[in-house]
C-alpha cells in the first residue's frame, strides 16, 4: 500500500485533509471489498448447502420410490404365489372367486390404489382385468397406451417369475408396473401343471396426489412430475429411467433451500455489520478529522511558538554577543554548565576550559559567600555579588559583578543563571580614586589626609600617652630652581627619586607622606630618644645631599626639617602637623640642611610674623616706610650720577627696621607689590623733585616679574610722577631669569622699550647660567659685595673680579661694584675699568636730605 506522501508547498491543514481523505477511501474500499467477498462466500456456501440438501432429497426420493415399488412387488408376490390364485386364475378364470369374492377385485383399487390389475395368459393376452376399480377386460398395451407387454414378459421370465417392477408413463403420468408369474407356491393342495405361467400385473399410477404423499412421507415438499416444456426452469429434479420403455420421467420437488435461510439470517447481519462499520468509520474519521484539526492547530501554534523561540533565541544570542557581559549557567553545586561566547573575549579563557568546572574556582575569594547564598536560597531568589576578583588569562586581576537567579527547569531541576558584568575599569578607577584621595599621585606616597588619619589613629590608641613618636615636616631646598631650570618633568622625577630615598631612611612601621610641592612628612613610631630622631634626620640629610641623576641631569638639593613630638608637644594631630610646620619654617630661616625641633616660642614667633604682616600692610598705607638713598659713583666721570633707593620701615613699636626684616615677609605674603609700588612712586617723585639730573635705581623682587605685569605698573607710575623713563633703573637678582624666562623676557623688553634700564643685582650669588646675559640684554650688572669684600684675601679673588668686569664688558654692560669700603678696592676697580662703584667708601644709604653727591673724604 502506498502511503500518502506529504506534498511540499501545500498547507499542513490541506495535507492533513488529503491524508485523512485518502485513508478514508482506503478504509471504504476495504469495507466494500470485505462485503463483496462475504456476499460471494455466502452465495457459494448457500449453493453448497443447497446442493448438499438437494442431493439428500434426491436420495430420499429415490429411496421412497424404490420402497414403494418394493411394496408393490411384495404385495404382488403375495397374490401371485398362491395356490388359490393358481387354481382360479391360471387353470381357469374363476370370476366368482376373483371378482365376487374380492380375492382380486375392487378392493385392490380402493385399498391399495392399483388403477390397473391384469391377469395375462402366458402369451400376454388379457384374461382378467380390473381397471380403476371396475371389472373390465382390456388389453394391457392399449390401456397403457404403448407396447409394454413384450418387454414386461421378458423381464418376468428373466427373473424366473419373481415380481419385477418398472416405471412407465401413462398419459404423461408416471406409473409403476409390476408383474409376476402366478404360481401355486408350495400349496400341496394344488398340483401344478407343466407349461408356462400366467402373469399377474399390478399398475399403480403415481398421480400428483400420490407423489405429494410419497414426498411428504420423506419430508420432501411439492414432489411433482416436470413436464418437458418446463424442464429448463426446474432447479431440483431427478430423472427416473423408464426401464421397460425408453426414456425418462423427470420428477421435481421444491428445494428445502437451507442456503437461502442462511442468507436470510446472515445477510442482514452482514449488512448491519457493514453499516455499523461504515458508521464507526465515519465517526472515527470525524474524530480523526477533529483530532487532526486540533493537531493542525497545535502544529500551527507549535510552529508559531517555534518561530518565536527561534526569534527569541536569535535575539538572545545577538544580545549576548553584543553585550559586554558574559552569561553563565551552573547547577546547584555551582558547576558551570554553559558559558556565553563573550566569556572568552572578556576573560581570555577558552569556554571549554571552564565548562564543567566550578564557578568558585574562577572566583576563589567568593567561594564562602557563593555557597552560603545557595544554601539559603529562595526558589525565585536573585542574588548579586559585586566586584568579584578573578585572575584572567593574562594572569592579571580583573573584576566582575555577578547577577544571578535560580531557575526551575521544565524537568523540575533547578539551575542558576546569571550575567557577569566586567567592572575591572570601574573597580580600578574606584581604587585609583580611593588611592589618590589618600595618596600622592606623583610619588605614590600617602598624602596629608592619610597621614592625618593615621596620626589620629595612633593618638587614639592609648590615651595614657605611651606612644612616643615624632612628626617630621620636610622641605626640599633648592628644589624650585631645579623645576624652573630643567622643567617640570625633571622636577617630578626628582620628587619620585626623593620619595624612594626617604623610604629607604625609615624603618618599617614608620610612615612617609607627601604634603604637596617639595614638602614631605615623616612619622617615626616609637622614638623615645632624641638621638634616634637625630640619626634618622642625619640619614635623610646625607641621602638627599647625594647628587641626583634625573633625566640625564645631575642635580643637587638640600633639605630642611621641622620636628614635633608626641605626646611632648601635643596630643592633637592638627597641632602636631602645625608645630612640625612651624619648626620647619624655623629650619628654613636658619642654615640649610638643618632639622629643628619645635619649641613653644616658635609658634609665638609665628604669631608675631602674622602680626607683622598685618602691620606691614598698614605701614604701606600709613607711610611708615621711608627711603634712603645710596650714591653710585661713576668712575669714568668721577661723579655721582645715580642713587639706589633702599627701603626702611619706621615701626611704631620696634623702631627702625631694615629690609632684611620685612622684605622676605612681603615677598611671601604678596605685599611686595604694594610695597614696590610705594617705593617706585616715592623714588620717582624724589628723583624728579630733589635729585635733578640723577638716575634712581629701585630694587625689584623677582617675585614681581611672575606675580604682576611689572611693565604696566612702572609705566603707570612714570606717567603719574612724570619722571623720564631713562632716569629710572631697575635692579633685579639674576634669579629672575630662572622661572618663566619667556614672560620675564617679555616684561624686560617692554621696560627697555619705555627707556627704563635694567641691572643685575648681586651678580655672582645666584644660580643662573651665563647664557641669560645674552638672552635678557641687561643694561648693567652689579657685582655682589661678597666678591669685593674677599678681594683682599687672594690674588685669585682679584682675578675673579677682573674676569667678571671683562665679562660684563663683553656683553656691553656697565659694571658696578658693590660694597666698596676702601680706597684700595676703589683703585683696583678703577684700574680694571669698572664703570661704577657703590659702598660705604662712597657713601652709606642716607635720607635724601643728607645725601652727599661728592666723594667722601
Ligand atoms: P642690595 O640691593 O644689595 O642693597 C645694598 C645693600 O648693601 C644695602 O643694605 C646697603 O646698606 C648695603 N651696603 C651698601 N654699601 C655697603 C658697604 O660698603 N658695606 C656693607 N657692609 N654694606 C653696604 P640694605 O639697605 O639693608 O638692603 C638690604 C637689601 O634689601 C638690598 O640689598 C636689597 O636687596 C633689599 N632692599 C632694600 N630696599 C629695597 C626695596 O625698596 N625693595 C626691594 N625689593 N628690596 C629692597
Ligand atoms: Ca640693590
Ligand atoms: Ca646688591
Structural features, described:
With about 850 residues, this protein is an alpha+beta fold. Among the domains are: about 325-435, Beta-Lactamase (2-Layer Sandwich), CATH 3.30.450; about 440-600, Alpha-Beta Plaits (2-Layer Sandwich); about 610-855, EAL domain (TIM Barrel, Alpha-Beta Barrel), CATH 3.20.20.450. Helices cover about 50% and strands about 20% of the residues. The protein contains 28 helices and 30 strands. The strands form six sheets. Strands 22-23-25-26-27-28-29-30 form an eight-stranded mixed barrel, surrounded by four helices. Helix 1 (about 10-80) packs antiparallel against helix 8, helix 15 (about 480-485) runs antiparallel to helix 16 (about 490-505) and helix 23 (about 710-720) runs parallel beside helix 24. The longest helix has about 70 residues, at about 10-80. Mean pLDDT is about 85; it is low at about 1-10. The protein binds ligand C2E and calcium ion (CA) (2 copies). The site of one calcium ion has 4 residues, from loops.
Amino acid at each position: 500500500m502506498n502511503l500518502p506522501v506529504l506534498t511540499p508547498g501545500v498547507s499542513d491543514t490541506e495535507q492533513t485533509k488529503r491524508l485523512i481523505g485518502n485513508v478514508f477511501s482506503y478504509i471504504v474500499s476495504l469495507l466494500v471489498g470485505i462485503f463483496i467477498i462475504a456476499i460471494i462466500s455466502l452465495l457459494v456456501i448457500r449453493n453448497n448447502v443447497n446442493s448438499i440438501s438437494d442431493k439428500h432429497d434426491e436420495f430420499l426420493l429415490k429411496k421412497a420410490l424404490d420402497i414403494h415399488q418394493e411394496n408393490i412387488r411384495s404385495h404382488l408376490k403375495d397374490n401371485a404365489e398362491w395356490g388359490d390364485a393358481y387354481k382360479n386364475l391360471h387353470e381357469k378364470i374363476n370370476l366368482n372367486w376373483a371378482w365376487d369374492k374380492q380375492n382380486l377385485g375392487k378392493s385392490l383399487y380402493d385399498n391399495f390404489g392399483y388403477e390397473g390389475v391384469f391377469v395375462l395368459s402366458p402369451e400376454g393376452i388379457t384374461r382378467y382385468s380390473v381397471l380403476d376399480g371396475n371389472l373390465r377386460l382390456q388389453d394391457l398395451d392399449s390401456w397403457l397406451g404403448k407396447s409394454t407387454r413384450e418387454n414386461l414378459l421378458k423381464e418376468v421370465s428373466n427373473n424366473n417369475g419373481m415380481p419385477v417392477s418398472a416405471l412407465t408413463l401413462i398419459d404423461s403420468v408416471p406409473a409403476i408396473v409390476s408383474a409376476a408369474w402366478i404360481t401355486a407356491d408350495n400349496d400341496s393342495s394344488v398340483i401344478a401343471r407343466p407349461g408356462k405361467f400366467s402373469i399377474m400385473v399390478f399398475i399403480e399410477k403415481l398421480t400428483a396426489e400420490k407423489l405429494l404423499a410419497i414426498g411428504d412421507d420423506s419430508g420432501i415438499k411439492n414432489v411433482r412430475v416436470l413436464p418437458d416444456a418446463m424442464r429448463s426452469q426446474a432447479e431440483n429434479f431427478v430423472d427416473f429411467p423408464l426401464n421397460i420403455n425408453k426414456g425418462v420421467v423427470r420428477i421435481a420437488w421444491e428445494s428445502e433451500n437451507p442456503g437461502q435461510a442462511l442468507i436470510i439470517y446472515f445477510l442482514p447481519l452482514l449488512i448491519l455489520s457493514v453499516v455499523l462499520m461504515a458508521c464507526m468509520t465515519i465517526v472515527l474519521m470525524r474524530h480523526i478529522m477533529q483530532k487532526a484539526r486540533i493537531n493542525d492547530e497545535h502544529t500551527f501554534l507549535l510552529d508559531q511558538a517555534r518561530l518565536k523561540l527561534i526569534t527569541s533565541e536569535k535575539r538572545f544570542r545577538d544580545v549576548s554577543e553584543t553585550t559586554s557581559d558574559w552569561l553563565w549557567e551552573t547547577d546547584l553545586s555551582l558547576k558551570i554548565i554553559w558559558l556565553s561566547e563573550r566569556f572568552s573575549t572578556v576573560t581570555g579563557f577558552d569556554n571549554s576550559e571552564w565548562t564543567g568546572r566550578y564557578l568558585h574556582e574562577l572566583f576563589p575569594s567568593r567561594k564562602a559567600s557563593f555557597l552560603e547564598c545557595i544554601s539559603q536560597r529562595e526558589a525565585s531568589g536573585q542574588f548579586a555579588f559585586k566586584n568579584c576578583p578573578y585572575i584572567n588569562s593574562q594572569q592579571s586581576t580583573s573584576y566582575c559583578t555577578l547577577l544571578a537567579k535560580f531557575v526551575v527547569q521544565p524537568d523540575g531541576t533547578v539551575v542558576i543563571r546569571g550575567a557577569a558584568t566586567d567592572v575591572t575599569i570601574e573597580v580600578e578607577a574606584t581604587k585609583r580614586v580611593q588611592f589618590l584621595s589618600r595618596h600622592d599621585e606623583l610619588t605614590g606616597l600617602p598624602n596629608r589626609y592619610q597621614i592625618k588619619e593615621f596620626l589620629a589613629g595612633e593618638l587614639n590608641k592609648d590615651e595614657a600617652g605611651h606612644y612616643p613618636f615624632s612628626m617630621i615636616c620636610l622641605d626640599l631646598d633648592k628644589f624650585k630652581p631645579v623645576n624652573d631650570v630643567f622643567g617640570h618633568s625633571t622636577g617630578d622625577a626628582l620628587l619620585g627619586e626623593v620619595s624612594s630615598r626617604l623610604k629607604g631612611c625609615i624603618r618599617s612601621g614608620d610612615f612617609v607622606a607627601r604634603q604637596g610641592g617639595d614638602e614631605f612628612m615623616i612619622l617615626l613610631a616609637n622614638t623615645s630618644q632624641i638621638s634616634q630622631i637625630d640619626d634618622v634626620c642625619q640619614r635623610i640629610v646625607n641621602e638627599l645631599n647625594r647628587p641626583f641623576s634625573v633625566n640625564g641631569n645631575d642635580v643637587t638639593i638640600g633639605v630642611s626639617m621641622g620636628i614635633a613630638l608626641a605626646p611632648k608637644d601635643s596630643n592633637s594631630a592638627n597641632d602636631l602637623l602645625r608645630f612640625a610646620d612651624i619648626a620647619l619654617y624655623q629650619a628654613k630661616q636658619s642654615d640649610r640642611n638643618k632639622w629643628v625641633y619645635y619649641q613653644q616660642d616658635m609658634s609665638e614667633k609665628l604669631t608675631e610674623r602674622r602680626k607683622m604682616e598685618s602691620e606691614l600692610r598698614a605701614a604701606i598705607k600709613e607711610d611708615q616706610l621711608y627711603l634712603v638713598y645710596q650714591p653710585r659713583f661713576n668712575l669714568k666721570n668721577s661723579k655721582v650720577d645715580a642713587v639706589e633707593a633702599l627701603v626702611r620701615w619706621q615701626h611704631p613699636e620696634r623702631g627702625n627696621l631694615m629690609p632684611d626684616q620685612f622684605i622676605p615677609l612681603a615677598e611671601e605674603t604678596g605685599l611686595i607689590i604694594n610695597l614696590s609700588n610705594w617705593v617706585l612712586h616715592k623714588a620717582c617723585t624724589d628723583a624728579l623733585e630733589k635729585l635733578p639730573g640723577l638716575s634712581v635705581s629701585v630694587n625689584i623682587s623677582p617675585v614681581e616679574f611672575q606675580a604682576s605685569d611689572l611693565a604696566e605698573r612702572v609705566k603707570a607710575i612714570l606717567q603719574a610722577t612724570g619722571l623720564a623713563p631713562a632716569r629710572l633703573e631697575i635692579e633685579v637678582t639674576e634669579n629672575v631669569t630662572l622661572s618663566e624666562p619667556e614672560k620675564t623676557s617679555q616684561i624686560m623688553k617692554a621696560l627697555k622699550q619705555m627707556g627704563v634700564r635694567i641691572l643685575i643685582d648681586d651678580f655672582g650669588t645666584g644660580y643662573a647660567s651665563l647664557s641669560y646675559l645674552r638672552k635678557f640684554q641687561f643694561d648693567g650688572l652689579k657685582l655682589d659685595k661678597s666678591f669685593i669684600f674677599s678681594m683682599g684675601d687672594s690674588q685669585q679673588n682679584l682675578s675673579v673680579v677682573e674676569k667678571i668686569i671683562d665679562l660684563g664688558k663683553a656683553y656691553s654692560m656697565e659694571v658696578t661694584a658693590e660694597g666698596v669700603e676702601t680706597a684700595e678696592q676703589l683703585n683696583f676697580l678703577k684700574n680694571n675699568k669698572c664703570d661704577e662703584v657703590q659702598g660705604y667708601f662712597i657713601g652709606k644709604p642716607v635720607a635724601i636730605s643728607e645725601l652727599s653727591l661728592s666723594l667722601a673724604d
